[in-house]
Amino acid sequence: MKADEPISFSSSVGSDELFQRLFRRHGSIMLLIDPASERIIDANRAAAAFYGYREDELRNMPITRINTHSPEEIRSEMQQAVEEKRNYFFFHHRLADGQVRNVEVHSSTIESRMGTLLFSIVFDVTKRRQAEEAQRMASLVYQNSHEAMSVVDKRGLVVTVNPAFSEITGYAPQDIIGRDIAILGSDREDPQTFNDMMASVLATGKWQGELWTRRRDGEKFLRSLSINTVHGDDGGIVCRVSQFSDITRRKESDALIWRQANFDALTGLPNRSMFHDRLEQALKKAQRNDAGVALLFLDLDGFKEVNDTLGHGMGDRVLQAAARRLQQCVRETDTVARLGGDEFSVIIGDVANVHDVERAVHAILHIMCQPFDIGAEPIYLSASVGITFYPDDGEEGATLLKNADQAMYAAKEQGRNRFSFFMSSMQDAAQARKRLVNDLRVALAENQFCLHYQPIVELRTGAIHKAEALVRWQHPRHGLVSPAAFIPIAEQTGLIAELGDWVFRQAARDAARWYRAGKRDFQVSVNVSPLQFQSGGIDHHAWLRHLQGLGIAGQNIVVEITESILMDKGAEVTESLLRFRDAGMQVALDDFGTGYSSLAYLKKFDIDYIKIDRAFVQNLAPGSDDLALCEAIIVMTHKLGMKVIAEGVETEMQRDLLAASGCDYAQGYLFSRPVCAEDFDKLL
């Protein structure tokens, strides 16, 4: 049969002409398919328009060209249609432009002179199938979502809920469907929030926010909620869809993280980060209102001794009590912050005059002097306070904080338990200190230091048995700089370890020179800073190798320490002193009687010499209390198997009284000022 030749059907079909007319002109997609050859015998105009081929191109086209299913599957489906086991099928048909459409095919058999043909009407169901798939996916999402979902009608009655809704709220579908959604309301929520929510839903059809809600068991929880309204074709409300999740734990976690980031864990006060934020807010407010702000920087006097003697646990309790006391001295609108350690700061806003600030500071100093009744015995502390003002002293937070810090150190230098206002001269002193720090680093690199020696005389014979090595800085511009000016800076900047190492090595070299000159039993005392015992500041092996290389023994070196070192409970101090002892070095305890003296410490660390501080020597007179104290120290020291060195001896009467009391050694201006190594050679 030719491609354009009409098909003849059996008489059972009816008029060929009528069928041909209906087939050609019908708006439905129609195909005649020969199942034997698996080809399209004929197609109508609607088919040509749908597939994108001409009618003559469709005729005699293999069915596999438009049907994307496998030949075996197509053959099986056509066989079922021929046997009239099924009369509709779902296929994917490919159009001429490559596009694939979902089609529903209804087939029936027709007898013709060519044999049995399939008359197929094709329906494009792509959009319907897509809609069904979308609906199926939406149902899956609805049923399996971790977000709680509910649908309520326009009256607020629940129509349906998903499993997550039941899991979060405790309401099973049968318990909630048909009931008012307001059953979830919580009395923890502000009623105005509900009013605002309903106003938004009525006005815009939607709302989003956070809402406190009640579970079925009465527990309150915070949910993140969104509400959307579904409208019908006529614009009327069909339903409202709510979606929410329980964010209670997340909010609690966020709040905890925020608090940890902004508040001190020990005292509960704002920490350094929150302090800076509060300070900036106070400055902005003061600028708007043309007002003043006072910034106080406070440090607890004597707190380190509390930590050293009573432990950090007791120190923490003292800090907590101090924080409470500070808050009692200022207004609720003021900010008390802990900046770290025993440093606190107070921001006082809306300052009208200086006297108001002074009253607050006097209250702080007074309350901090009161005993802290925390442990078995009362603890006594005091405070040093630095004060600066906005805008007089500065307009930026960093500047004000620096000013208050400098004023606080000025208060400490004045004797502690005091307050000091910031003055511009403090800025000059700070700049000078900064330059001194830089110069100190250069001095170490360029070896600008030297040692002076003060003789230590045996009182019984008057002979020089020892010498104390005292470091001096020969500054290229300022001349000889006092140790009192640079030793504290070296300790604060961490340069003390390097400086202390240099002092030991140079003192050992001078001791070796005097050893070779015949002074075999001569000892040189080297001062060791408490900070050198921390973080490996002393390299014992290197020091001992240095002594061995010089050909002298540890017995020629005496290590001078202060009582604060003995009070350090760390293992580093004990191990370090034992290493000195094992190397044959002796240990002298400097400034005895001025700190927290303890006989237990003297016995524990096996001290060789006790050095009586000059404060007890300078006022020595027959029958004086100072003489009685010196005699008591000497007797006690000898009973413990140690020897005594008196410092600051300047008069013959002082020397004679000490000798009569049994003191072993003395040093001071009476015998000699500290001199350079060359001049000390002459003394020897």
TrEMBL record:
EAL domain location: 433-684
Any one GO molecular function term: cyclic-guanylate-specific phosphodiesterase activity
InterPro entries, per database record: Biofilm_reg_signaling, EAL_dom, EAL_sf, GGDEF_dom, Nucleotide_cyclase, PAS, PAS-like_dom_sf, PAS_4
UniProt cross-references to CDD domains, sorted A to Z: EAL, GGDEF, PAS
GO terms for biological process, alphabetical: cellular response to nitric oxide
Domain PAS: 15-85, 134-205
Catalytic activity: 3',3'-c-di-GMP + H2O = 5'-phosphoguanylyl(3'->5')guanosine + H(+)
Pfam families, alphabetized: EAL, GGDEF, PAS_4, PAS_9
Domain named GGDEF: residues: 291-424
UniProt-recorded name of the protein: EAL domain-containing protein
Organism encoding this protein: Noviherbaspirillum galbum
